[in-house]
Amino acid sequence: MRPQGLWLVTSLELRQRLRSKFWYIALAVWTVVLIGVGVLGLLPTVVLGGGTDMAPIAAVIFSLQMILVLFAMLLVVPALSAGSINGDRTAGTLATLQASLLSPTEIVLGKILAGWLTGLAFLILALPSAVPTALLGGIGPLYALRVVVVIVLLTMCVTAVGVGLSALTNRQLGSVVLAYVLVFGVTVVGPMIWGFTAAFLQQERDVTVYRTSYSESSYGECEAREESDYTVYRLDLSQPLLWANPVVLLAEAAPGVDPETFWYSGTDDGPEVDLLRIIQAGLRSTSNPTHPASFNGCSPSDEGYPEDLGEVPNRPIWPQGMAMWVLAGGGSTAFAIWRISVPIRTLGKGTRIA
Questions:
Q1: What are phi and psi of 219, to 5 degrees?
Q2: Please, which residues have CB within 8 angstroms of residue 129's CB and are 6 or more apart in sequence?
Q3: Of 320, 315, 182, residue with least CA distance to 249
Q4: CB within 8 Å of 132: residues ≥ 6 apart
Q5: How far apart are the first and last CA of the chain?
Q6: What is the pLDDT of residues 196-247, one digit of tens each?
Q7: In this structure, are residues 23 and 17 in contact, taking their beta carbons and an 8 Å threshold?
Q8: Which residues partner with 213 through β-bridges?
Q9: Exposed (0-12), middle (13-18) or buried (19+): which is 252, by Cβ within 10 Å?
Q10: What are the two backbone dihedrals, phi and then psi, of residue 301, each rounded to the nearest 5 degrees?
Q11: pLDDT of residue 216
Q12: 21: phi > 0 → left, psi -120 to 50 → alpha, else beta; which?
C-alpha cells in the first residue's frame, strides 16, 4: 500500500461529497441543534436559580450532548460508507479504479478514511458547543478526551463495517439498510433482549441480606437476616449482549463513581453525576449479582455495618466491547479487499463492470 495511492482515493471520495450542498446544510443544522440543546438546558437554571448551582445541570447536559453526537455518528456514517463500493460499481467507476495502479487495499482504505473524516466533521462542530457545559459541569479534560476517543474509534469501526457491507451486496440500498439494521440491533434490540432475559435467568440461593432498622433505642442499626430461596437475577450471564452497545461503551469512558458517594453527587462528599456515569454504575451493579456485598443495603455509618463482606468487583467491560467492534471493522475491511480484488471469478447477476 502506498500513501499517495491511499490519499488519491480519499481525496476523490471527499471531492464527491463536497460537491453536494446537502452536507453543508446538514452540518449547519447540526451545529444549531447542539447549541440549542446547551442553551435550552442551562437557561432555566440561570433564570430560576440566578445562575447558582449550575454544575449538576451542566454535567447532565454535557453527557446528553455527547450521546446526541454518538447517535448522529450512527445515523450519518452508514449513509456515508455503506454505498461506497456498490455505488461506484453501479455508476461504472469502480472498474476504472480496479484497472489502474491502485491496489485493492488502497481503494478500500481510502474509502474508509474518507467516510471517517466526513463523519468526524460532525464531531468537530459539536465540540465548541460542548465546551461551556463541560466547564460549568466540572468535566475534567481526561474525561472529555476519553469520550471523544471512544466516539472517534466507534466512527472508524462503523465506517469499516459499512464499507464491508457495500462490498457484500450488489445494491446500494440493500447495504445501507443492512448497516442501519446492524446499528439498530446493537443499540436498541440488544438492550431490550438483555432486559427480557431477567424473566428466565433467575436463580434461587441462600443468602444473608443486610438491612437498616430503626427503633427508639437505636437509629440506623444494620441487621443481618438469613433468607433461603432468595431470587437472584443473573443478568450477568446475558451481559455480552451489551458489550458492543455504543452508548454503553461511551458510558464506560466516564470516570467511575464510588457506590458510597454515588447518592451524594453534587455535594462535598461526591462528584457530579451525569447520564453516562449513571449508566455505567447501573450496568456494573448487575455484573456481580451473587457477590455477598450485593445484598448489603446498609450505610457505612450504621451500627453493626459488616466490614468483612469486601467490595463488589468493579471490572470495566469496554475492552470486550471495543474488541468486538475492532474485529468487526477489521474483518469487514479484509472482506472488502478480497471482494474487489481482480481478476474476479464470479459476479452477481446484472452487476455492471464499466
A1: -120, 110
A2: 31, 34, 35, 37, 38, 65
A3: 320
A4: 38, 42, 58
A5: 24
A6: 988 888 888 888 888 877 766 566 778 788 877 788 888 888 889 999 999 9
A7: yes
A8: 221
A9: buried
A10: -85, -5
A11: 61
A12: alpha
Three cell numbers written together for 293: 456485598
CB neighbour list of residue 65: distance below 8 Å, 6 or more residues apart: 34, 37, 38, 126, 129, 130, 133
Of residues 79, 92, 82, the one with CA closest to residue 351: 92
pLDDT of residue 264: 46
Contact 77, 115 (CB under 8 A): yes
Is residue 99 within 8 Å of 76, Cβ to Cβ?
Answer: no
Cβ neighbourhood burial of 191 (10 Å; 0-12, 13-18, 19+): middle
CB 186 within 8 A of CB 246: yes
Length of the chain: 354
Amino acid (one-letter) located at 239: Q
d(CA 158, CA 78): 7
- What would the DSSP string read from start to end of 189-257? IHHHHHHHGGGT-EEEEEEEEEEEEE-SS-EEEEEEEEEEEEEEE-TTTTGGGGTT-HHHHHHHTSPP-
Report the C-alpha gap between 6 and 54 in whole angstroms. Answer: 47
227: amino acid identity, one letter: E
pLDDT band at 332 (very low <50, low <70, confident <90, very high): very high
**Strands of the chain, DSSP E:** 202-214, 219-233
Phi, psi of 233 (to 5 degrees): -90, 115
CA distances from 2 to 9, 57, 103, 110, 254 (A): 11, 49, 9, 11, 38
Which residues does 1 contact at the CB level (< 8 Å), separation at least 6?
A: 103, 105, 106, 109
Residue 352 contacts by C-beta under 8 Å, 6 or more apart in sequence?
89, 90, 92
